[in-house]
Write a structure and sequence with these properties.
homodimer; alpha+beta; six-stranded antiparallel sheet; globular
């Protein structure tokens, strides 16, 4: 039976009298070369988990697996079979009761045997396994699950940049094959809750709480679709509790088939809003199966009522102008409950390499951080897994919209039946599970599929299939084939690249995109994270061939990424300590991210989204675009982003990051307002702060009243840079009486001496890849 | 029963012993204001036809309806109900026989009554009506069909440019509401074959000949899907005849259900190719229902074996280059049987306003002309109807690929259930009918839906629905949501517009598009066509308020379109006769079309299509982009296009159409090859011809061997223009020993006197709209 999590803030006093019982199993695991081999030995297994972790714990592997090159000790396992084994006694089943084996996730291709007989086989880790064992039970039973070797495709290119080729014919998330911030460490095993369950003859399988809001958004018609083994004539009790716990609907009836849709209207409901735009009102929908006055079973769902659309942004219909004329851009602005939302957030990769060990607590720490960072959206990227149920519960609760991709990323997935069949099964399972959630805002086929490194197109059958499935199973949620679509954009992922036009400060204002759904600026890890991943003698200076390289500081996308040491030394001179390296690298990450997030916001309303690459990392990276180090260690950039994403703030558009002695510094001032409040007129002063708190006030701007969800562009402020001793200076914007709107930015100052001693051409040659 | 047309070139001697009988009916028609009114009088009706034609013929309306403003006499009918009536005697039905009423098309919304009782109602003109009357027959029967008033949408803008708004919530093709080359004349009535049919108890309903080609394209697995009232245990005989008539498959068996799929393999088959790339090999698939050795019924289908894909053109994956990076363009090149095809053709609108009177002969004249014009594709545009069956038969036979759009054009079709339901029904009917045809190459949601005058997007449910239906019902044919998609382009539709960058000679070479799927250059009609549409006293000079205006020479898209008189007078001086007007206008149409078609071909392989707007017209237009005047009267532009579409030709890219005295004339020379033949080296000479056949040779180019399906760019030729007396001169390219590759172009010459006397600014002011 699928169990629905009761929320922390569930005020309703529900009498959840459930006569079903769940029995956890004790598992053992063994590995073998051929499918029918018996394992040489059986090791204890922790479920949910991963085969690698069981072997590591039982066989004295080096730990932690993320230290140094320890992850390489798992490579041999890719070609092995793994078999899980458990024994259990047939339970006493009352009349009509049944015993089910249920698993919410087995990764990735497997066969299940009971007492030596094959009872199930499956490809796909997102489809729940639910098998009625009742009629084939013996007094003593042995259940085995054999996990097949990892899917690979013959002829795939086996280099870091192309490991993912191996996943191009399967629905296994490609990331674990290796990515530019992820080692090759291909997970397998039972990765979600798995147990035996005794069920009544009559039981609920799924409840999908469909609803339709009235045009006014004040009233709703709710249609729970109840599926299960319901038997003719069973009674149900349906209650809905408001967010404050008050019961607003209570209705009894009979279920006459195994697939029933019931209906009721609620008036004057409270809408669910994403973070920053209103409360996350969640109703509690409870369906109880009742027989002779006894509650056989309860199904509890949290529901948030909302509408969501993907709409054209202001100005985007006006193009193209000249003939021959192509189409207008794809819509890329969210409208929630009839209000345009500026989507501010991050690409969620995953919080653990071994998602089997991720729990609600793992998720909650990070979802909570996103809310505190003023984010309202996660793009759950197609390279990674579709998260466990508790992730969506938390996004519902914290008001984080979920852009959910299917497991396709950076590959040409084929128009072939075997693949399409697995994809259909997996996508169907994913949609049916997630569609109940208030937070689901967008379905998306996968990552960067319409670019030359993937080579999929509108004609690709996997994407046409996903469009069809989403239309059939969840038609009220928008569907995008991939990201980016026409007008949207990904990249860049560094602070400075001359061949892309210089600094992010230059290329961002020149870009005109409807949504920035990936962009990154790398930063070195926090010092404790670095110390946890490598021997002390490797810490400084960073070198190739050390844990710096295996943890993605070198040679992952060009030889200098993600550390970008030549850039750092070009800007800051020779770096002489680990502390300085971290400080400078993290400073550029902070300022780069502020530049992009604020520029995207300044481009509103044409632009509707700013979603950086990426939020967290599933293991400690020595340098990475992430805002949070593994396991849950925020980098300074997280707080920089938090500031840039405040609902209202003063913002400066500055033409560059590095300034030279004697130059005319300039910046354009803005007041940004993402709220639906009007901001009364006020005053912003701009000053430079340098050396030992020397201050140079150079502009005061009386900004006008600012409309709802509107930005105001103010004056261009200019000042000749004073001669400084330090190589850094700050621009501070102070808003009179509104310190919560204040902003500050740090820039690099280059004295004439430094300027003359290090011609820029040196670096240009250095980064040639 | 659906009857399949036997082709003219069917060499197989098929014994099509069909015991079914079709009975044509005699119809009367009447009109009334309210649905339940009886018509005041009954008029004779010709079926198939249109309600307007019946009333016109019976009530002495002015004829022909296309003369002057005669079309306006039908306007009052839009709000009327029309009822068709017929009487028939119950036939003698043998044991088990049934009587069906069958209609292949009733336009648009209607109710059918038998003996006063409603037996069917339907919205949609593309779904066959098929009603078993057997059990409700009386000895004497009266069948009535009431056609509802034309669909309209309250609040629609009722001006020429927006008449189509009225069609935005229906699946009725929008064109008849009025377009810039089509009067408002909204067709209704029985528009395709309609009859009573006596059927055996066992009968075939549809046969869909599915097939799968082997990777080598040499062998095929055929899977006819047979549906009908087949009864258990009936025998079938399945034969397949090769294009030469030889029977290559003969197989007997039993049909055990009403929906059976049978299967066989054919080896070494001949592929079907589009015109210009190979033969149109058509096999004849025959399914016969047999009982006790008697053929009860035969179903004959022509099948052409082909694969078709929409692929990315050469170079189109290379973009975009810079970050932030959007997606690559949409694929827009056809690949047929593994070979890239340059799609050359025209937008098929329709050959008659009243499609009820279009016959196979109507179609054949025009499809044949397209083949002779070296075309290989029709885009059957979403503003018009999906053609009758014989159109597709002819496209199969003549090798014209069909890009078939659903009936959506230039409107925001809604995400609403009533509309979606009708669209699903109509699209399903269309797909199931057309998918049998060799010529079907692309399904498309409709016309210009992703531009600001329509405002649909990827998220629009009607388009997601169409994508889903095509995937389910015809997955081997590509699907585009609309035209243009990203990278493709529509327009412009005139020879010269300063605000678009001047002449088509300037804006086309600057454009970089993957496909030009609409573009036009207007030309005045042929003189006999003009005389047939207006009184002699209106012929010259052309004036607003006359038949010139009602026939689209003025005020249809700006006040001077499609005549473009200010442009003609700017280029050719005051025009003093009808003959001169026609000559100059048709010259610009010829040269404009040659410029665009050849430029698109020169942009191969990045560009994959050139499809002009439009092929024909459904009534006589005084000026229009069409290549063929109504009813089937080619304009000179058709022959100009025929030349530009030759498989191999010498071509000149010329920077402008009008040249001034003393200027340096220049052109870039090309040899264009769309064939899969290699062209051996040869010599092209370029000369100017002017005044009384004066010749000025100015370049000779020895072109190299030209690869398969490849173009070669040659030198830029330059010459100072000699002083001329005439205002026109020609550029002639002569290919030594290959006169069939020769090309010639005509340009305007402006002497210093003309140049000084008519400043261009005069015209610029004149066209301001």
């Amino acid at each position: 039976m699928r169990k629905f999590i009761l929320f922390l803030f569930l005020f309703v006093n529900l009498k959840n009298v459930n006569s079903q019982t769940k029995n956890q199993l004790q598992w053992q695991i063994g590995y073998h070369k051929l499918i029918n081999d018996a394992p040489v030995k059986w090791l204890p297994s922790k479920v949910p988990g991963a085969v690698q972790l069981d072997v590591m714990n039982a066989e004295n592997y080096k730990q932690p697996y993320w230290f140094g090159n320890n992850f390489e000790q798992f490579t041999w396992m890719e070609s092995q079979y793994f078999t899980y084994k458990t024994n259990f006694v047939k339970p006493n089943l009352k009349d009509g009761e049944k015993l089910f084996f249920h698993s919410k996730g087995i990764d990735y291709q497997f066969i299940i045997y009971l007492n030596g007989k094959k009872i199930h086989e499956q490809e796909g880790m997102f489809t729940y396994v639910d098998i009625d064992l009742t009629d084939i039970l013996k007094p003593q039973n042995e259940l085995k699950i054999t996990i097949l070797p990892v899917p690979t495709v013959a002829g795939s290119r086996n280099t870091m940049a192309h490991y993912r080729d191996n996943a191009r014919k399967s629905a296994k998330p490609a990331v674990s094959y290796g990515w530019d911030w992820h080692p090759r460490l291909i997970t397998r095993g039972i990765w979600d809750e798995t147990y035996l369950e005794t069920r009544n003859q009559s039981y609920l399988k799924t409840v999908w709480v469909k609803y339709q809001l009235s045009d006014s958004l004040k009233n709703v018609t709710i249609n729970p679709v109840i599926q299960g083994n319901l038997l003719a004539g069973k009674n149900y009790l349906w209650t809905v509790a408001a967010p404050d716990g008050q019961i607003v609907l209570s209705q009894k009836g009979n279920l006459n088939s195994d697939n029933e849709t019931i209906q009721a209207d609620l008036k004057n409901i409270l809408l669910w809003w994403p973070n920053g735009y209103g409360k996350q009102n969640l109703y509690t929908n409870t369906i109880q199966l009742i027989k002779n006055g006894v509650v056989l079973e309860s199904n509890v769902n949290k529901i948030g009522f909302k509408t969501v659309k993907m709409v054209m942004s202001q100005g985007s219909w006006d193009e193209p102008q000249m003939f021959p004329k192509s189409r207008s851009v794809s819509p890329a602005t969210f409208e929630v409950n009839g209000k345009v939302i500026f989507a501010k957030g991050s690409n969620w990769v995953h919080p653990e390499i071994f998602m089997g060990i991720a729990t609600k607590e793992t998720y909650e720490k990070q979802v909570k951080l996103a809310k505190e960072t003023n984010m309202n959206i996660f793009r759950v990227w197609g390279g990674g897994v579709t998260n466990k149920e508790s992730f969506f519960d938390l996004c519902d609760e914290y008001g984080i919209l979920v852009w959910q991709e299917f497991p396709l990323a950076c590959n040409l997935y084929p128009d072939e039946q075997p693949y399409l069949k697995v994809l259909e099964q997996e996508a169907t399972s994913i949609i049916k599970r997630v569609r109940n959630h208030a937070s689901i805002a967008l379905w998306c086929g996968g990552n960067e599929l319409f670019n030359d490194w993937s080579m999929m197109t509108e004609q690709s059958l996997p994407l046409r299939l996903l469009n069809k499935l989403c239309l059939e199973l969840d038609p009220q949620i928008p569907f995008n084939a991939t990201s980016p679509l026409f007008g949207m954009a990904h990249g860049h992922y560094v602070m400075w690249e001359p061949k892309n036009g210089g600094e992010v400060f230059q290329w961002m204002p020149k870009s005109k995109n409807t949504a920035y759904t990936e962009f990154g600026v790398p930063g070195v890890a926090n010092i404790d994270v670095l110390k946890a991943m490598m021997p002390a003698n490797q810490l400084f200076p960073p070198k190739m061939g050390t844990a710096w390289e295996s943890h993605h500081a070198f040679n992952v996308w060009g030889k200098n990424r993600w550390l970008e040491l030549p850039f750092l030394e070009e800007y800051f001179g020779t770096i002489k300590s680990l502390e300085n390296l971290i400080a400078y690298s993290q400073l550029t990450q902070c300022e780069g991210y502020k530049c992009i997030f604020e520029e995207a916001r300044r481009q509103k309303p044409y632009c509707g989204m700013a979603i950086n690459w990426d939020f967290q990392e599933p293991w400690p990276c020595a340098a990475n675009n992430s805002l949070i180090n593994y396991p849950n260690n925020p980098k300074p950039a997280l707080y920089a982003v938090q500031n840039s994403l405040r609902p209202v703030l003063a913002s400066a558009q500055v033409p560059k990051f590095r300034w030279d002695e004697g130059e005319m510094f300039s910046c354009d001032l803005f007041l940004l307002n993402d709220t639906y409040d009007k901001i009364p007129t006020g005053k912003i002063t701009a000053k430079l702060v340098y050396d030992d708190n020397k201050e140079l006030n150079f502009l005061s701007w009386q900004y006008p009243n600012v409309d709802e969800s509107n930005n105001i562009k103010g004056p261009t402020a200019r000042v000749i840079l004073p001669k400084m001793k330090s190589n850094l200076f700050k621009l501070i914007l102070q808003v009179e009486g509104r310190p919560n709107y204040n902003s500050e930015y740090t820039f690099v100052y280059r004295s004439k001496d430094a300027l003359n001693s290090k011609p820029i051409i040196t670096y240009l040659n250095g980064v040639k890849e």
